[in-house]
Amino acid sequence: AQRVTQPEKLLSVFKGAPVELKCNYSYSGSPELFWYVQYSRQRLQLLLRHISRESIKGFTADLNKGETSFHLKKPFAQEEDSAMYYCAISGGYQKVTFGTGTKLQVIP
Amino acid sequence: EADIYQTPRYLVIGTGKKITLECSQTMGHDKMYWYQQDPGMELHLIHYSYGVNSTEKGDLSSESTVSRIRTEHFPLTLESARPSHTSQYLCASRGTGLYQPQHFGDGTRLSIL
Hints:
The complex is a heterodimer of chains A (108) and B (113).
Chain A: E1 3-5, E2 10-14, E3 19-21, E4 24-26, E5 32-38, E6 45-49, E7 60-61, E8 72-74, E9 83-90, E10 96-98, E11 102-107
Parallel strand pairs in A: 2-11
Antiparallel strand pairs in A: 1-4, 3-8, 5-6, 5-9, 7-8, 9-10, 9-11
Chain B: E1 4-7, E2 10-13, E3 19-25, E4 31-37, E5 43-51, E6 54-57, E7 65-66, E8 76-78, E9 87-94, E10 102-104, E11 108-112
């Protein structure tokens, strides 16, 4: 079975501080991993996927197969980054499972 | 414009009523999904579909049912609503191929009195 764990329900950081949102997964094959973001009163939307290896809104995420992790990082937090962040995995059969989410609060 | 649409956005209804939540997408996606989410909380997969006439139950047991008669349409039905069904329901679709992201609708916020 595929599973995603996001250990922090809430992460509070000051503006300009580095951010790391943790995501660990369990899946026996080669999963597809994603980060989604939900800003207040907006739709859930894709932020990053592991295959693209790009930086979106200053965020990056590296897949570490040895540690089965896909942590989301940003060197300098901005107030507009405050949102709910969800890590998601898609394994066999195209089922997509989400983690419990982490609320990022950037303090001015 | 290619998008995914959910109606209604909000529904307040009494116990015992039959409810259908609509979800339509104009992106030609084969895969569609229903999630249950209390605001700001975890998303629970309740149903998904690979294509027409294919539906599967998700990770969270649900008393709802779904159908997929047309590619673009994936309605969710509750035969007899109860207060425990009060939640937000999100619909998503996904294209074919590896690493395709899901596209989400605005959601339906359901309150059962």
